[in-house]
Amino acid sequence: MSEQKCRHGWQTWMNGCSVTRHEWRQRLRMNIKTRVDFSPLRLGLAMTMMVLPAVAQANPFASPIIRVLSGVQPLPLELPSGTNAHTEIPPVLLPAPDGARLIYLPTGYVYQCQTTGNPLNEEVQLLASQCAVVDLPEDNSAPNVFKPPGPGDIPTGRNQWELNYDAVFSAHITKDTITGKQIIVTVNHGETKNYLASNGYRYQSPFAPRAASLPPDCGYQGYMGAGPRGFRNCWLSYAAFVSVEQNDYSAATHFGQTLNRSVSGPVIWPTNGYYDLSRGNEGMLSVGLRHPSSIIFGGYIYVYYFDTSKGSIGGLSAMGTKLARAQINAHGLPDAFYAWNGADFETPALPAGFDKDNLARFIATPGPRIPALFSREAVGRPDYPLQSTHFSVAYSKKRQAFVGVENFIEYVGGNEMHKVAIRLSTDLVHWGPRNLLPIDGHDLSYATFANANFTSNSEVDFRNIYLLGTSHGRVNFLRISIE
Prior knowledge:
Elements: H1 3-13, H2 21-31, E1 33-36, E2 48-51, E3 66-74, E4 77-78, E5 92-95, E6 101-106, E7 110-115, E8 124-125, E9 131-135, E10 165-175, E11 182-193, E12 195-196, E13 202-203, E14 221-223, E15 231-232, E16 238-248, E17 261-266, E18 289-297, E19 300-307, E20 312-313, E21 316-317, E22 320-327, E23 338-339, E24 347-348, E25 388-396, E26 401-412, E27 415-425, E28 435-436, E29 445-450, E30 465-471, E31 474-482
Parallel strand pairs: 4-8, 12-14
Antiparallel strand pairs: 1-2, 3-31, 5-6, 6-7, 7-9, 10-11, 11-16, 12-13, 14-15, 16-17, 18-19, 19-22, 20-21, 22-23, 23-24, 25-26, 26-27, 27-28, 29-30, 30-31
């Protein structure tokens, strides 16, 4: 193995680079051991211990035990009444001055609330006076609601990567070393689609066939029935994007309680691109990039995302969880992103010549041709070979190691089984095998981490890890430890 490959982090996992990646994966497969401790039930769940494989002497996880310390419980966090706050996604957490907490409540729009309460220790009631809208999709952003002149018109001159949905999926505080200012950097999931809003406005996506050419009841997705349960997506006119936004972390913005500024446009592109409009309804290449998470480490921001590209790359699935990173510059913001290609971060994450103000020109252009991180673990449907749908990461300073939580789907007898698993790593790119948690995955959708202070999603103590997830708008939590 070359010295260059060692510099990408394999040495700590692989005992000084003396083990090849192929040998490493073979040992992972051969040495997996799982045992269950039939100790007394607690909240309806048996305490479960899972033992990771002994790979090499330098592997710090030669025989750790993952214990489930408590069952899935509702998080006692009451949303502010009199607002439209909703938790489709688990809360995104940051510290605030004087021991307070910044809590982002993400859905298609985002509220940021500030409180001194910690819902991991007590019941917390958020008040409307503590909260403010900090992210809105372009179709209802201030100062004017955007309404195309006609149902077939394509909007131009707006942030076309977030016309109908704009949610903060992770957030960090960085520093502009030139001015000394602190900055909130968020990683967002945006959506653009043919859309029927509840106010009756219709929006034509520039990235999908005209509504008139789509199947009946699929032309304008949106509120097609009574109440919010009537909402549904039409995937033939759906495109999802990963972008980066910023806000000042200062008293002037009340520590981020003003509208975030979209500074980047999309920062990563799907392997296949989005849509070949010349092929009409048969031209879908992917529905884009979904469900990002991020962590800042070693001067870089690492973004994990779900690429929905069809097909395979070198026999590995093009669909699934992938990784890109960008260096944090002197202004505290990410530079250009580069995707992990299995060996290094030297593959640009966007097409050559990319222009965020002219997205339609790139809609059929391929992005980085990279396989999914967990391609080799595909089981189930041949037309949907990879089930990993969301992956979130946190770091333990004491253990100097990373833990990941993965939502994935297993197909058993034609039925979808939603599950949650833990993975471990020392370098953010090479991950150990899945260690299944004994829970229903529906109870912990979009799973992420929280520290005991409820101020971070990306820093944890392995002795007391909190997992957050949602179920039908309710936030749940689960507590585990890794020894």
